Amino acid sequence: MRTRTTAISAALGLGLALGLGAMPASAATPDDGGSTAKSSATRSGYIGESNKATEAFFNAVVKDALKKQAAKPGIQAVTVNYDASGAPTFASQIANSTAVWNAAVSNVQLAEGGSASFDYREGDDPRGSYASTDGHGNGYIFLDYAQNQEYDSNRVVAHETGHVLGLPDHYEGPCSELMSGGGPGPSCTNDKPDANEAAQVQSLWANGVASAAFDQAAFAK
Predict the structure, then answer these.
(1) From which residue to which does the signal peptide run (predicted)?
(2) Which of 26, 33, 84, 186 has the maximum number of C-beta atoms within 10 A of its C-beta?
(3) Catalytic residues
């Protein structure tokens, strides 16, 4: 499931093909001037995730979407279900993220309940917030308490959910880019994808499934 293909490199773009490792924990964000006084959560997770892990997460979600498409051949849009029961503290932020993404794109929609493709979890983790897999084909989004207090929580959750839909990180981008994550600093409160990000998701999920973003034969094994 983790086999990389040239297709996914072309489809995801924005350097995902190069981002096989997490940003070093000591890497400075554009707003901190290289200071080491920032919390560990500030320097990881939301501003330094492992693209390999988020790619694996996306592939797991797409594999589940293929099953739905097989059950209903010809569907033009896929509904990706999630379980939010593991992150009750962030119920409103998760609901906001769902509304944001469902308004921005139409080829894929998010919905709570049903047969979940991924779940949200919460707690304390020095790595901060991140999107990953549990090693068994299921994806999850972990939301760190400290980080969601330092950064705008709606933006953090919507950003992490963007990984579910296939978007890689682009920390060098401006606040107007949702996938720039914590790069613009804690003052950035934008929780919506820009037009380019929405277009990427639309393209990835065209005709009901992100067929250009992964090796279907690999998933069939």
Answers:
(1) 1-27
(2) 84
(3) 160
